[in-house]
């Protein structure tokens, strides 16, 4: 038996991809990650339909890295790179539950000084050819980027993170990712909201308004008093008041397309109420790339914070997380921290050994 054949047998023995092993893991109470070594599309071929709740992954960059295992990212053309990704993501769609989500972080590349737009080429191919529904395009702002010696372009410090779903009725726990709101307080006898709104300015604007009728002013004063009582009682963290002639309406002034425009025309004012549980995260994430395990093991710094919001929002507790390009296991580490089961797949046995080691201290 050749050395290469023996190595293949060792890999299969250590990281068995049989569904019976995976099924046993899924029926247990353990959230320690399970790892499989092999080509992700082939490994997923053994999975039944709709068997995982969530998938997040970051495929190898095209033509920019030399990884320990030969696979995606080493194609001679970007078209073949996209084709290989689509083959895998078709399997991801099949094994993802009806209510599941797929989050894809993908980097761009240049060819002959041309920025290829690979993230959007892949995203549009997924929606147009495979029927995925794109729910969000997140910008990952790395805050600081690596050195860039080019003298004829700007420095690249962002990547895309796309959120795809199979169906419109998917799992989403928005309250799990809200930012904790500030609290109101009383200053000199007046109620002040989390961001310092006391109502004094709004009262003055109502009083001095030349466009509100006396009846509208009385209604506005009463409504403002009720809002401030909600703030004082902790039912509302913050608010803004839009008054006819004082603030511009949000979104549109057209009554035919904006309910708020109709409200300000009919009542003379409306309120923007902040959610009592806090605000939703935006679609721009400022996250510094991490390198906790050392570049000697893996060349792509995939930060744990990048997958924290996706897992909390779109994978139920004790749900099953999948990463078909798991590398050294960051997605699995975060899934375990958040009490989710996870399955990581990678071509490199060396990466998987590192991944298992990173998860062991969490036991």
Please describe the topology of this protein:
Elements: H1 3-14, H2 19-26, E1 34-37, H3 40-44, E2 52-57, H4 78-95, E3 96-106, E4 110-111, E5 114-115, H5 118-130, E6 133-141, E7 158-165, E8 185-187, E9 190-192, H6 200-208, H7 214-232, E10 239-243, H8 259-267, E11 269-273, E12 284-286, H9 305-314, E13 320-323, H10 330-337, E14 341-346, H11 349-359
Parallel strand pairs: 1-14, 2-3, 2-13, 6-12, 13-14
Antiparallel strand pairs: 3-7, 4-5, 6-7, 8-9, 10-11
Helix pairs in contact: 4-5, 6-7
Overall mean confidence score, pLDDT: 84
What is the domain tally?
Answer: 2
CATH class category label of the largest domain: Alpha Beta
User: How far is the first residue's CA from the last residue's CA?
Assistant: 38 Å
Count of DSSP helices?
A: 11
| CATH homologous superfamily heading of the largest domain | Vaccinia Virus protein VP39
Structural class: alpha/beta
CATH architecture of the largest domain: 3-Layer(aba) Sandwich
Could you tell me the CATH topology label of the largest domain.
Rossmann fold
Tell me how many strands there are.
14
Stretches where pLDDT is under 50 for at least 5 consecutive residues are 7-14, 253-257, 292-296
H/E element sequence = HHEHEHEEEHEEEEHHEHEEHEHEH
- Largest beta sheet: what is the strand line-up? 1-14-13-2-3-7-6-12
Determine Rg (CA atoms, Å): 26 Å
Strand content: 15-25%
Shape: elongated
DSSP helix fraction? 25-40%
Largest sheet, in brief, is: 8 strands, mixed
């Amino acid at each position: 038996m050749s050395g290469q054949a023996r190595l293949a047998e060792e890999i299969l023995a250590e990281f068995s991809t049989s569904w019976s092993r995976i099924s046993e893991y899924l029926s247990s109470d353990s959230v320690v990650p399970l790892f499989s070594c092999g080509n992700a599309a082939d490994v997923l071929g053994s999975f039944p339909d709709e068997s995982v709740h969530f998938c997040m992954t970051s495929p190898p960059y095209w033509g920019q890295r030399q990884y320990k295992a030969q696979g995606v990212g080493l194609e001679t053309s970007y078209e073949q790179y996209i084709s290989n990704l689509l083959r895998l993501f078709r399997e991801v769609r099949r094994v993802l539950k009806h209510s599941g989500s797929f989050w894809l972080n993908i980097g761009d590349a240049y060819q002959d000084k041309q920025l290829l737009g690979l993230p959007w080429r892949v995203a549009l191919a997924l929606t147009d050819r495979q029927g995925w529904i794109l729910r969000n395009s997140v910008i990952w702002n790395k805050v600081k980027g690596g050195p860039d010696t080019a003298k004829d372009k700007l420095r690249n410090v962002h990547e895309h993170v796309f959120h795809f779903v199979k169906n419109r009725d998917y799992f989403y726990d928005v309250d799990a990712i809200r930012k904790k709101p500030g609290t109101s307080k009383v200053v000199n006898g007046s109620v002040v909201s989390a961001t310092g709104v006391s109502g004094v300015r709004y009262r003055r604007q109502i009083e001095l308004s030349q466009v509100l009728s006396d009846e509208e002013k009385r209604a506005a004063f009463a409504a403002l008093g009720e809002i401030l009582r909600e703030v004082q009682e902790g039912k509302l963290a913050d608010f803004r008041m839009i008054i006819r002639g004082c603030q511009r309406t949000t979104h549109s002034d057209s009554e035919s397309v904006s309910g708020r425009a109709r409200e300000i025309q009919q009542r003379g004012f409306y309120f923007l109420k902040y959610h009592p549980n806090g605000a939703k995260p935006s679609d721009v994430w400022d996250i510094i790339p991490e390198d906790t395990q050392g570049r000697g093991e893996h060349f792509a710094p995939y930060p744990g914070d990048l997958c924290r919001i996706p897992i909390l929002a779109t994978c139920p507790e004790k749900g099953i997380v999948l990463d078909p390009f798991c590398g050294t296991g960051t997605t699995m580490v975060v899934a375990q921290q958040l009490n989710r089961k996870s399955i990581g797949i990678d071509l490199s046995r060396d990466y998987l050994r590192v991944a298992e080691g990173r998860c062991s201290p969490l036991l």
